Amino acid sequence: MKRVCAVGAGLSGAVIxxxxxxxxxxxxxxxxxxxxxxxxxxxxxxxxxxxxHRYGPHIFHTADERVWSYVNRFGEMMPYVNRVKATVNGKxxxxxxxxxxxxxxxxxxxxxAEARAFIExxxxxxxxxxxxxxxxxxxxxxxxxxxxxxxxxxxxxxxVEPSQLPASILKRLPLRFNYxxxxxxxxxxxxxxxxxxxxxxxxxxxxxxxxxxxxxxEDVGESFAHVFxxxxxDRFFRYDLGRLGYRxxxxxxxxxxxxxxxxxxxxxxxxxxxxxxxxxxxxxxPWEAQNFAETVCFREYSRACGAGDIPYxxxxxxxxxxxxxxxxxxxxxxxxxxxxxxxxxxQYLDMDVTIGLALDVAAGFQAARS
Length: 370
Fold this sequence. Notes:
With about 375 residues, this protein is of the alpha/beta class. The chain contains 11 helices and 17 strands. The strands form 4 sheets. A 7-stranded mixed beta sheet has the order 8-7-13-14-15-12-16. The protein has a 5-stranded parallel beta sheet with strand order 10-2-1-11-17. The protein has a 3-stranded antiparallel beta sheet with strand order 5-9-6. Belongs to the UDP-galactopyranose/dTDP-fucopyranose mutase family.
């Protein structure tokens, strides 16, 4: 039996490799980077000892009990609640927008029912079927909160006007009329005690899996029974229809003593602030944060992804969707290749969704050969 290949040692490639390895397949996992775990790669900072999310914050949250059980099989998940703050016009607020945010922003002391009526009076109820991010936000929270918390941040993050982005981006963000500042609604939330890289390493730890780092798919001469490709979809076809649009991130490191932010993430929606947020990484591990006298933070800047950059977020504007449809049609015509993951499918996928889809792909592949 020829072995199969998983292109990319992130969550998609690792999970598919492990599932097939346990079913008796020999699997080669390759990644052109010198480390595993893709963009959720974590490592101890040599100077401070803090667990660093090397490619920006990753918080695990899910409603999928199967996925939650899966990650706990390979690593210990510690309790973690994502509580985000935002500095707007020199004042600090709580996100997502909740009753505390509303009362603080408008200088009121409303009860839940009063706040709901107050926001509904400001919401653009005439927008019955929001199509854009801007329309959804105006329909959602009204002009004042939209301009304060969403407009500037969105323009910096995506590099386009909010009126050009789909409404679906905002539909994931809650509006609460109580004091709950948990950023996510999912019942299972946590952070791996020893980092995401340890979990991915445990997933890849199987006798039937060979791991090859610093190796690009284009440089592998071997043929395989099947390839699971989690690299960029347009790259697989050598960009011959053009490049799909992505946003990439630049990180500016800040080191200091003690506690700099007092929280894990501080957003900066003001348009005159060039970065989108600052993250203080020791707060992503609250069970050990007090152990570190020194701290390390990262300012995060978003910009258009160039040819040599790491792609983070698919933009999916109108031109991208047209090009994507052509690439997807070509992908469907491929035999012996399954396109998986955030880059292979050109869509934003949370970690839990990525794992769930990888489990489904592996099961489907096995079932088709049974």
